[in-house]
Amino acid sequence: LQDVIHFLKKCRYVTGGFGGGPHQYPHLAPTYAAVLSLCLIESDEALEAIDMLGIKSFLWSIREANGAFRMHVDGEIDVRGAYCAITVARLSGIAPDDKLFEGTADWIATCQTYEGGFGGAPNLEAHGGYSFCASAALALLGSSSTVNLKSLLRWSVNRQMKYEGGFQGRTNKLVDGCYSFWGGALVQITQMLIEKESCKDGYTINIDELLFNREALQEYVLICCQKPNGGLIDKPGKPEDLYHTCYTLSGLSIAQNFSSTKQPIIIGTTNNEVLATHPLYNISPKAVMKAYLYSQENSPNRDQKTNAQDEQNEPIIDD
Known about the structure:
- Helix content is 47%, strand content 0%.
- It is mainly alpha-helical and 319 residues long.
- Helix 2 runs parallel beside helix 5, helix 7 packs parallel to helix 9 and helix 9 packs across helix 11.
């Protein structure tokens, strides 16, 4: 882990953010990956490697006037950028009411399609990965009233295929192991957002169970996505890789662990059990909480924070 921390320090760009490797220009994707990796290590040394002021400066450099974010300076604009920006900001101690994200929720809302899901940008096809990014970003911002959550939930649950048990990423596409997380977490987040909005409207919807077949998703991952020589895959016949290994296991975690107050649902023996992952960040809830506490205690603007702002920084989904 020491070597990981030292390598990621070398990937920090002098003006803020992380590049894909040493001396590379900063980019939101590796910045997101680096910050989450350092949070996952959970040590003070790892969290100290996150340059809070540098992160904020980098995010301002790629922010658009309408609240959208580019992936890098002069790069592409999509919902993934907004999600990555909000994620690293929250874990770095930047409050959700900061002007950095003024207009972001409204821009994300323009990406919702007639199907109910979200495209990568306005007027693009609804996509499972982008829909996860949109819903998670809105949850982190605490602003989901501008989107049609019921339509999003209907679209989301219909992405699980009855025969395979896995999730497809778009309408009329084949299943893909990585959508075990993008799709499974999307359903959970959307249900939580609906529950939260119901409280604002004066009534309460209690979520007792996730609205997808958790057993069927586990069977798809365990039976169809494991390679005999190790690693996990998109679907039978595909090669193993780290990306699909990560997100199929993450989807397995979502399918097994609904909340800390409920017993996990595990297909097969207990050897198949995996630890819980936070549906918004896809790292352990413990790592998220440690990052929150560390950023609050070590934020350069700590003395300017009010108790109300600290309360606002509490995670919306806490399991």
